[in-house]
Amino acid sequence: CELEKNIIEWVSRISERKDELGGFNVCPYAKKALEDKKVFWSYIAEECEAYILRYIEATPEFEVIVFYNLKKNLTDEDLKVIISNLQSKRNDMIFLKDHPDNPGFISGVNTSNGEYPVILVQPRDKLEEAREKLMKTNYYDYWSEDYKKEILNYGK
Asked: Which of 10, 83, 100, 116 has its CA 20 to 30 A from that of 2?
């Protein structure tokens, strides 16, 4: 399946240790979550908010759910509106976006899946616990202030 291949390659890429990141990887927890079968994925279209909320309810014990817009017809602005609406309904989750027209970079390392507009959902408690652990290291020293502010403000 093309989608499964994309997510495995993406997780693999963001799990590689990078010299540019001081030996850290983009996402220190992604590979283990995939290996533990705690990463789920599905498709989304324009009217996706109700579907995403139902999918979250039906998916126990996940680390992340990745919702792919296969038609690639959702803009970066569309994703911002959708995640804002979802966040207002599920404060126990943190909703993030990844869009090929606006990829993220940490010290020049691309964090994006590179192909599809994506909404990611993570349980707030698990994500905040992971962030707290990373704050005790120099992991965030490699992030620009703007990128750190953007990513850490998701869910606020």
From this structure: 83
Tokens of 7: 């997510």
Sheet strands (E) in 11-72: 39-43, 64-68
Instruction: Identify the CA nearest to 150 among candidates 83, 75, 64.
Output: 83
The strand pair at 118-123 and 93-98 is best described as antiparallel
Can you list the positions of beta strands (E) in the chain?
A: 39-43, 64-68, 93-98, 105-106, 109-110, 118-123
Q: Are 67 and 118 in contact (CB under 8 A)?
A: yes
* pLDDT given for residue 7 in this prediction: 87
- In one-letter notation, the amino acid at residue 22 is G
Q: What is the pTM of this model?
A: 0.94
Residue type, position 25, single letter:
N
pLDDT (0 to 100) of residue 105: 96
The whole-angstrom separation of Cα 140 and Cα 146 is 12
For all residues of the chain together, what is the average pLDDT? 95
Q: Do residues 93 and 43 lie in contact, with contact meaning Cβ atoms separated by under 8 Å? A: no
From the DSSP assignment, how many helices (H) and strands (E) are in the chain?
6, 6
Q: If you ran DSSP here, which 8-state letter would residue 120 be given?
A: E
pLDDT for 97-127, tens place per residue?
999 999 999 999 999 999 999 999 999 999 9
